[in-house]
Amino acid sequence: MSVRCVDTDDDTPLQRAIPMTHEILPADERLLAEVEAWLDAEEVAYKAAFEAWKANDYEGDAPVRGFRCNWDSAKRAWREGHSKIHVFVVGDQAVGFLDGTDILEIRPGFRGNGYGRLLADFMVKSAGDEGRSVVKIEIAPASAEPFWECMGFTLMDDRPSSGGGTFAFKVLPRTFNLGDGERVPYMISFFTQRERYKDEPKAFAQFDGIGEQLRDGRIQLQERAFCFNPEDDQHVDYFVKIELDGRLVHFDKAKYEESTSFGVERDPGYDFYIERINPKHASV
Fold first, then answer.
1. Pair (73, 203) in one structural domain
2. Residue at 265 is within a domain
3. Which of 48, 186, 196, 233 is deepest in the core (most CB within 10 A)?
4. Above 50 in pLDDT, residue 224?
5. CA 34 → CA 31, 89, 96, 98, distances in Å?
6. How far apart are CA 97 and CA 32, in angstroms?
C-alpha cells in the first residue's frame, strides 16, 4: 500500500522543546470544522502565492500547497467509517491532523514547534498497535524529507510512487521471548516470482534463528519474519520458503492456503508474515 504524507516543520525533530498543553484526539465534527477552516485559508493563500509566482515568470521556489485538495475525500472516508482521523490540539486550538498513515499536516503559524514529531510518533505507534510490520508513506513536499529521515524512515528515491511524493518506510520489529521448549533452527525466505524459478534463487528478505517448539508442535520464532520488498509496490506474487533444522518443509506462494496452514498470515498493512511455524507436513 502506498500512501501520501506531509510534514513541514521548519526544524529537525530534536531541535525544539514541546509545550506540555497538547492532546491528540479522535476527530469529531467540531474539530473537523476547525481544521477545515484553516485548510481553506491556507488554500486561498496558496492560490494567491501561485499567481504571484506565475506572474514573476516562475522565478524562485514554487509555493507549497497544503492538503485542502485531499480534505473532502479524507473527511468522507472518516464519516463512512473507513478511516481514522486524529487532531492535534494545543490549548483549545486544532493545530494539526493525521489521517491514518495517509496525510499529516501542521497548521501554518504553528510549525517548527515539534508538533509534527509528536504526530509522526503517534502514527508509528498506532501502526505498531494495529499489528503492522512496516509503516509506508509518501513524502511531499520534498522539503519534508530530512524530517522523516530523522524520524527513522528510509527513503527510496528510485521507486515510483502513485501520489508523486517520495516513497519511504520504517520497519517495526517484533521480537519474542522463548520459553524452555526444545530449540529448532529455522530459516524463512521470501522471493519474487521471477527469482523463484531460477536455478539459484535469491531472496529479497531472509530471517534465520533458533525457535522454540511449543506443546502443540508449532515453532515459535525469535522475531516476526515479514515479507516486504522496498523496491516494488507489493502488488506481485511473492513466494515463501520455510526451512527447519536445515530441512525444506515448504516453498510456495505466500497467498496460498497451504502457506497459511504453515503459519503465514497477513497484517493490516497487507504484508505477509510468520511468527509461528506449523510444520505439519512437507509441501515443495
1. no
2. yes
3. 186
4. yes
5. 5, 11, 10, 14
6. 9
